[in-house]
Design brief:
The chain is of the alpha+beta class and 252 residues long. The chain has 2 domains: 120 residues, Phosphorylase Kinase, domain 1, CATH 3.30.200.20; 117 residues, Transferase(Phosphotransferase), domain 1 (Orthogonal Bundle). The chain is built from 8 helices and 8 strands. A 5-stranded antiparallel β-sheet has the order 1-2-3-5-4, sandwiched between helices. Strands 6-7-8 form a 3-stranded antiparallel β-sheet, with helices on one face.
């Protein structure tokens, strides 16, 4: 039932699509190449509509397209009011951040950026929030270490939740969807932004069905106990994983 609801919502928002499928396909077709096949990607429609691009006869996509929809933009204008940013500016900001993450081997390559859509590399793997708790606990030190590399490399990801962290098929960590624009977007992260990234990630980890998040809480605490310059205390980390407090806020 939920999948049908997502599909109907996508189709409705697609009525306001600001660019045609033909234009997106044309932009991705390199002469004399064969046009790619586009497939709707239903999750995450808050900031634009996503499509997966496949090469003919391929089972794994090679790119993700994010396109603007006038219907989504109307909602964003009401929700964000004075903080609303037009899609062309959002796409440019996100493309820049993703390119900088890619240079650190922490994100997808940006293949194309236009006013009404942009295209990034598809990262083959699994989102952190979809993994079993034991595997999340095992990979958590790698993910938190990747946040340190990102911040140390001057990149502030404004929406670093567990759904935007990809554990790639080769084991590397990748970050996607830096789509929340704000006053700090593009600026090097300071200590407050660094702390926010850690807190946002920990608070977004999935809650166990039985409410017992000790496995993830203990894994997070161990990381901060041994880190050379931890932005959080072990106790604070446990509090966030267990959803007993909300993350630090930054001026987004």
């Amino acid at each position: 039932m939920r999948s049908w609801s997502r599909k109907l919502s996508f189709i409705y928002n697609e009525l306001g699509l600001d660019v045609s499928r033909r234009e997106m396909i044309s932009a991705l077709t390199e002469p004399p190449g064969t046009p790619p096949l586009l497939e709707r990607f239903l999750p995450g429609r808050g900031w634009g509509l996503k499509y997966l691009a496949f090469k003919p006869d391929a089972s794994v996509p090679y790119a993700v397209i994010k396109a603007s929809s006038s219907i989504i933009e109307r909602r964003l204008k009401v929700k964000l009011a004075g903080k609303y940013v037009v899609p062309s500016r959002r796409f440019a900001l996100e493309s820049e951040l993703l390119a900088r993450l890619a240079a650190l081997d922490l994100g997808p390559a940006v293949l194309l950026c236009r006013e009404r859509f942009f295209v990034r590399e598809y990262l083959d793997g699994m989102a952190l929030n979809l993994l079993p708790a034991a595997e999340i606990a095992e990979r958590l030190p790698d993910v938190l270490g990747a946040i340190e590399r990102s911040c140390g490399g001057g990149v502030f990801h404004t929406d670093l939740n567990a759904g935007n962290v990809i554990i790639r098929s080769d084991g590397r960590v990748g970050f996607i969807d830096c789509e929340v624009p704000g006053s700090n977007t593009g600026a090097p992260p300071g200590e407050r932004e660094r702390k926010y990234c850690h807190e946002r990630l920990l608070h977004s980890l999935p809650l166990a069905a039985d409410g017992n998040n000790s496995l993830l809480a203990d894994a997070a605490a161990r990381y901060y106990e041994t880190a050379a310059d931890p932005p959080l205390t072990p106790e604070r980390a446990k509090t966030l994983v267990n959803k007993n407090d909300t993350p630090l806020k930054v001026p987004l």
